[in-house]
Design a protein that fits this description.
Elements: H1 9-28, H2 31-36, H3 41-52, H4 56-70, H5 75-108, H6 112-119, H7 125-140, H8 146-169
Helix pairs in contact: 1-3, 1-4, 3-4, 5-8, 7-8
């Protein structure tokens, strides 16, 4: 390990702790998001091993090992990738919340359908009406929320497709 004489021991420790913290963030990342990152195989294997460990001491040592492996990679590149993946996840959550709000409006207000169709021109109106009718009937009969969930999936897909179309136009 090359040691730069201009960097103090305290600074090197801070850098090592920062890498270890980044490694811990990677260990806690959902598998789907971790799969999107371009990580060296050795580092990826160490992260997956850390996920399997449940004992505190062993996990701490494994996290230190992950931090040590992080010294050999471009941590800034990994941070940028991580920010990009997390921004995508934040966007997905925002779209889901938006779809939930639309579902509530559509179920509560008859006039919301026209506004929804005007806002999202690619909407399959007949499918949406059918799902709305079935979801309302389902709620009135106190049945399990199959169509209620299907309605949300349909609205979410419509919102997502509209956002993709808007992004491709810009």
């Amino acid at each position: 390990m090359d040691q730069n004489p201009d960097v103090s021991k305290s600074q090197r420790k801070r850098e090592m702790h920062a890498l270890q913290s980044l490694g811990k963030t990677l260990v806690e990342l959902p598998s789907e998001q971790l799969g999107r990152l371009d990580l060296p195989d050795v580092l990826c294997d160490a992260i997956l091993e850390a996920r399997r460990i449940s004992q505190r001491g062993a996990l701490r040592r494994q996290l230190q090992y992950v931090g040590r492996l992080m010294r050999d990679v471009d941590a800034n590149h990994i941070r940028r990738q991580l920010e990009s993946v997390q921004a995508g996840a934040t966007r997905e959550v925002a779209i889901l919340h938006r779809a939930e709000r639309w579902r509530e409006r559509l179920l509560a207000d008859e006039g919301a359908m026209a506004e929804f169709v005007a806002t999202f021109p690619g909407t399959d109106v007949q499918r949406l009406r059918t799902l709305l009718r079935n979801a309302k009937r389902e709620m009135a009969d106190s049945r399990p929320p199959r169509f209620f969930r299907e309605l949300l999936r349909n609205i979410r897909e419509t919102v997502l497709n509209n956002d993709r179309a808007a992004q491709s136009d810009s």
